[in-house]
Structures are given as C-alpha cells and as structure tokens.
Amino acid sequence: MRLFFARDKSLLLLTALFLLLGAGCRDGQGVAPASKAPPPPPVAKIVLGLLPEMDIFVQKKRYEPIARYLSEKTGAQIELKILSRYGNILENFQQEELDGAFFGSFTGALAIKRLGVEPLARPEYPDGVSTYYGLLFARKEKGIKTAQDMKGKIFVFVDKATTAGWLLPLYFFRSKGIRDYQSWFKETYFSGTHEDAIQDVLTGKADLGAAKDLIFSRLARENPRITEELEILAVSPKVPANTLAVRHDLDPALKNALASSLLTMHQNAEGRRALAQFGASRFIATGVQDYAPVIEYAEGIGLDLATYDYRND
Amino acid sequence: MRLKAILGFMLLVFFFGVGGIYIAVNNARVIDNLEKVLALHQMGFFRDNLLNRVRIMQADLYLAVSPHRTKIGDFVKHGEALALAGESCLKCHHSEATLERVTHLRQAIAEYLKKSSRVYMFSANNERRDKEEKNAFVSGMHILGEIDKLILLSSAHSSPQIAMARQQVVRMRNTLLGLVTIAPLIFLVFSFLFIRRFSSSLSVLVGATKKIKAGELTHTITEQLPDEFNVLATAFNEMAVSLKSQCEALVVEQGRYKVLFESADDAIFIVEGEGEGAGRIIEANKAAAAMHGYTVDELLALQIQDLDTAESAAQAPARLRQILAGGRVEALVEHRRKDGTVFPLEVRAGLLEIKGHKYVLAFDRDVTVRNQTEAALQRSGQLAMVGEMAAGLAHEIKNPLAGIKVSMEVLMNELALTPEDKEIFGRTVREVQRIESLLKNLLNYARTPKPVFSRTDLNRLLENAMGNAGLLLKSSEYAAANGKAPELVRSFDQDLPTIMADPSQMQQVVLNLLLNAMEATTEGGTISVGSRPGRAAGTVEVIITDTGKGLSEEAAARVFQPFYTTKPKGSGLGLAITRRLVEQHHGTIEVAGFLGQGTTFTITLPVEQKREDESQ
Prior knowledge:
The complex is a heterodimer. Chain A is α/β, with parallel strands linked by helices. Chain A has 13 helices and 13 strands. By secondary structure, chain B is an alpha+beta fold. In chain B, α1 packs antiparallel against α2 (72-91) and α3 crosses α4. In chain B, strands 2-1-5-4-3 form a five-stranded antiparallel β-sheet. Chain B has a five-stranded mixed β-sheet with strand order 7-9-10-12-11, covered by helices on one side. In chain B, β9 (526-533) and β10 form a beta hairpin. The model of chain B has no long low-confidence stretch (mean pLDDT 85). Chain B has helices at 2-62, 72-91, 96-121, 126-213, 227-263, 286-292, 296-300, 304-307, 310-324, 368-414, 419-446, 458-474, 476-482, 503-520, 553-558, 574-584, 611-614; strands spanning 267-272, 281-284, 329-336, 342-354, 357-366, 454-456, 487-491, 499-501, 526-533, 539-546, 588-593, 599-606. Chain A binds chain B through residues 52, 55-57, 60-61, 81-85, 159, 187, 189-193, 196, 205, 312-313, and chain B through 72-73, 76, 79-80, 83, 113-114, 117-118, 120-125, 128.
C-alpha cells in the first residue's frame, strides 16, 4: 500500500510538474488568453407529475420510456414525480413547482379551470381509443342490480378527483335516488388507485367499486377472473385519456418541443419503441375543448369545479 | 558442447515455458476463484442491500400515517431501489432450488410493493387502513424472513466454496512462491554447471597456452576435456607438436646458417643502415673478429667507420647512400686492426631489410695475400718473359759461341804461345764454357720438356740419386772445395706406393736438391733423404734436409725465383727449374729453414696423374 501510495504520489507529482511546465510554457510563449467562450445554456429541467392510476411503482415505470424519449428530443431533462393522490395534484403542481402533468380527465378539467394549464397531447391506444370512461361494477355473486341491493354494502371509490372513480358513482347514486351515499352504504373508502378499486372488489374487500375502463381492461387481460367475476352496473360518458398539460407560462419553445415530440413520436422507430413500452400507438393533439364532456358531467351532478373540494374524506 | 548448450537452452525454455503456462493457468484459476469469492461476497452485499431496502420500506410503512411520513417521491425511490435489489439477486448464479426461492422472493417483493403502494394511496377508515398497513408490514416481514433463510442457505453453499477458493489461492501462492524460489535456483545451478564446465576447460587451454608461450613446446594437454574442448585440445596438441618440429627445424636451419656465418673465411658484418645509430655493427662473425684482431663482442660495440682508415672512412657515407638506395657496392677499402696495422679489404655490401628496417650486409675479404700473390705472379710473368727472351737469345748465341770456343782451342793448340798467353787463352775458353752452361740452364728453364709419366718407385729413384751424390762426395774435387763430406742418411717408407712420374725429371729434381745441400753443408754435417705418405690422401712426400748454413727469411721467400741465388757463381735457375719440374708433376715444393740451422725441402707429389697428362 505504501508502495502504491508512493507510486501514486510520484505520479501526482509528475502530473503536477507537467501541468506547471505546461502552464509555464504557455506563459512563456506569450499566447494571448483565449476569448471566454459563452457558457453553455443551462439544461432545462421539466418536472412532470404522474397520477397514481395504478401501483405507483408500476405507474412510474410505465411512463419512463416516454420521459426518456422526451428528454432526448427536447434536450430538456424530464423528471417524473409520482403524486400521492389525484387531488393533491393541484396543490403539488404549485408546491412541487411542476411544469406539467399527465392529468386525468377530471383533474385535467380542474387544472384547466384553476391553474390555467394548457393541454398538449394524450395517448391513443392500439384499438384507436384515446378516451376512456368510468365503470361501476360489483361482484356477480352478490347479485347487486339496484340501489336497494347496494344498501348496506361496502363501496370503494378511487379518489374524489377522478371522473371514473368518483364522478361516475356520484352521478349513478344521484340517478338512482341515493342522496347520502355514506349512510346508504355500510362503508365507503378511497383506494387511491383504479387498480386497487378493481382488485378490492374482486378480492371481496369491497362489494362495489368504480374505476376507469382502461385499467379494468388491462387488468382483465392479465386476470380473466375480473371479467368472469365482476359485473358492470354503470358506464360514464367518454372523457379524454390522461393528457399532458403544461403550465401556461412554460417556455413556448419547450412547450412546442414537448408537443411536437409527442405528436410525432409514432413516426420514428425510437418513438414507436417507447410507445410500445408505454402501451399506446401514438399521441394525439388535445385541447381545452376536449374536456367539455367532463365539465358537463361534473356540472350534471352539481359540482362547481371552481370551488369543488376534491380532498377525500 | 554446442548441441548440449542448445539442448540445455531448449530445456530451460521448455521448463520456463511450462512454468509460465502453469503459472498462467493457476493464475487464471486463482482469478476465477477470486471472482467466485467476489461474486459470493457481492451476493452477500446484494442480500444485505436487499435487507436494508426492505427495512427502509418497512420504516416508510411504519411512518406512513405519522407526521414523519416519507415523501411520496422518496417512497417511490425506496420502492424502486427495493425492486432493483430484488432483480440484482436474480442476476447471481444460483442453484435451481435457490433460483426458485429467489424467484418467489421477487414475486413477494412485487406483492409487497403493491401493498405498500396501496398503503400510501389508500384513504379509508382506521380499521381498514390498519388492516392494509398490517398486511403490507407482514409481507415485508415475510420477505425479511425469506432473505434470512436465503442467507443461511447461501452461507451453507458459499462458505465451503469460499474456503475452497481460499485454499486454492493459498496453494497457488505457495506454488508460485516455490516456483519463484526454485526457478532461479535451477537456473543458477544450470548456469554454474555450464560455466564451470566451460571455464575449467578454458583454464586448461589457457594454462597450456601459457606453457607454450613460456617455451615449453613439449607440453601437451593430457586432460580429457569435454566435447568440442577435447577437439580443441587435440588441435592444440597437434599445434604444439607442429610448433615444436618447426622450431627444431628453425633451430637446425639457424644453426646451419650460424655455421655458414661463423665458418666463412670472409668477414661478415650486419650494420645499422638508418637512424642515429647508422653504421653500428649489429652482427659480426668470427672471421671478422679474427681479421680485425678484436673479439666479436668488441666489434659489436663499434661503428663500422671505426674500422676504416681515414681515407676509407671519407668514402663511407657515399657508399652507405648507394646501398640504402638499393644499390650494391663492391669496393676496395683499407681497415685498421686493433693493433693499428692497416690491411686491404675487398668489400661487397648490399641492403638488407628486416621488418621494414634497413640494414647493410657486408662481406669483407682480406686481400693482402692475394695482392702479394698477384704481385708475385706479375713479377714471375715478367721473369718468364725475360727467360723466354734470354732462351731465344741463348739459342742464337750458342752456335757463334761454340765457334768462338773451337776457334780459341784451335789457336791455343796451333800457335806457339807463351805460358801467360796460353793461360789467357785457357781462361777465355773456360769462360766461354761457363756461358754455354748458363745458356743450357736458361734453355732448360724456358723450354722445360714435358714429363713422360711412368710407374716409378720413388724409393729406388731416391736411392740412385743418393748413390750418385755419394760418388760426388767421395771425389777429391769435393773434398778440396768443401772439406769433410757430410753424412747421407736415408729414411724411406718401405710401404710407399709407386707413383706416376717422369723418372729422369724426378732424378734431376732430387739430384739438384742434393747438390744444393752438399754445397750448403761443408765440414761435415748430415744430409737426410726421406719418403713418406703425404698429408693429403693420394700423395707422397719427399723430404731433403741438411744441417748446412740455412736460409734467411727473404731467401726462403725468393729461393724459387729465377735468377735469385745466394751462391757467388750460381745462375739462379736451379731451384726455379726444380719447382717447374715439380709443378709439371702437379706437385708442390716448400722450403723451410733459418740461417745457421739448415734447410728442409718438402716435395709433395700425387700418386696418380690425370689421364691426359699420363698420355703425354
């Protein structure tokens, strides 16, 4: 070790000597100092929030190919940040200084209304679908068909800031004459993710639940029991799939770069590879008008998006 | 050796390779075990994490309805963390039973999350809320219980695995330590053996080389060296033998040249040719030392110029330049001996280059004798020419002189003369007779007849000559002129071979010498005549010795010259004719004697003559 250190020290000394000599030589030659190059522009960093549609670890992993692709194409460093709850996304958007997020349909509508975010693009899935709808389901064996059948049961919502996991059940309850769902049901709770809502009903932790069809279909492909043992009781109108929306004051160049990168990624192999890993076929342009069905749906159940308290009880 | 070295190297590579593979395999196994242990610990961490996540969720649920409720964003995060922790458990490796448990656990977590989500999203009365919270909380406790069971189950499985993994790690650590310790040791042992084998052989070779260098050429390597070193040692021994034989040959050759150098009659010098020491004598042979009266060592301390006379030394630089330019010098110079005497030399010198250095090689010949001989020959030639002229003249004079003598005799007999006149006529006739005798000798010398060789008994010839001499010695004329006659002594070798000679000429030679001895030996004395085999093979010697008045040194040197005589009435041609006759027999005649001590003549004659001469 001592030898190594001695050799290392000698190497260091030699290096220092060469550096000194090199410096001396340069000074001696009287070369004029090079003009200072302009510092490279700082790499832009974009923090994008992700909603806990499913297992948060899986959710983040699912979006990583998209984030890598965007980083490469835009030159900006894309960082993904999982949000603990749907509703939190509005607070987190400001607290965590998010530049954008893949909003769900309801959270997107809320963010447009309250934060003024600008929707850019949303995925279109291989079957040509770029929207989703909410499902209200129960275990077939329970024989639940009517509101009366639901009485005294356990209902699992996703989150108060979801279309499928909250607006649809509320709309369904209202249409079935259930004014106070908390007293109507034995117990209600929020699973936090669509996946858990489906799994809870499937495993019997809850009797009824609501979630988005996209997650339902995906889980059903992995576990046939879902379609075999669960029964769809109600369906919501189609709403836009999770859409990337950015803050309104984001650098327009970055904004355009993000939008164009997403919208053209299906046109190159690298993009197609990332889309395949994500599970989509392409991204399509999305505007505020695409959220009109959600807003109408919310207003239909008497929610004022501007003042709506989206925090779970 | 090379093959062994390659094999050794390959073995080492093999061992290291195998060791490396073993280490790598075990290392991988250890890493697997460690990963397994880590996974088990990680699993434990995941379980603990899962436990904590559930407990956090339980706490969130517990506080869900309190003021301290967890924010939804944090709660989602806690849930996501729990789900993630649950998923993590599934990623671990489990047995089938455990996997089933974990799967159930994950389902339970999913259920728990759903229930928890529900608690957080739920909005109902307290009873329902309590029920839902309890339901979720119980699920959480159940999960905690399941996790505890899983922990116990996993511990039962993982503890032995951890223990086994730990054992394997320890075993591997020990093995690695062993390898790390042993491998260098093996390498060292191999290296030591190889180097010792290599160096010991090299030491033997180097030692042998040093001995050869020290001159011990008979040294050979007797040790049995391994592999190529033995080949090298054999080659080394062969080289030593070859070197020795070459050295011996060189020594023999050097000795031969040394003998040639030292036995040469001429003086041989090697002289420094260039530089400050130019002229210094480097080498000199014994003849040079003897010629100059120095020892060789004394000569080597001298310059060649030191031996020159002043006149010769003045010409030395020019000769040296000529030699250094590649020329060859032949010159007559004069050198001075150690005792100061000067003598003439004929010098032949040339350039000698040894390893790029220039020397002068000089051959000096003492020409004193040659000069003297040439001078004598010149004089002899002149005398011969004079003799020829005298002989011609004598031939022409002889007839008129005979006429004069006859006329004088006729007149002396026919005329009536007074005794005084008769004495005058008689003296005139005797003088004419002396002139005739002189002319006869002159003709004999100038026109010596060619010898007619035949097999001759020299002892008998000597005996005849001594007989004739004895008759003369007994005559009254001899006694009147010389007094008491000398004694004649014989000393013949009875085994003397007969020789090819002209008996009459040999008779003349011996008689001439005996007459000279008889004239020199007066009032008694001894004349000895002897014969013996010659000192050179195929020769015989005749020795005639008298105890007469002897010869002076000058007389001894000139005694054979024509017209040289010590006698008052001698013609000076007797010994000249004698030597000529001996030389016509291819022999030699020498004289030795001192004044008052007698004289000895030694004649050396070949036993056989050449064919062409015999036929004459």
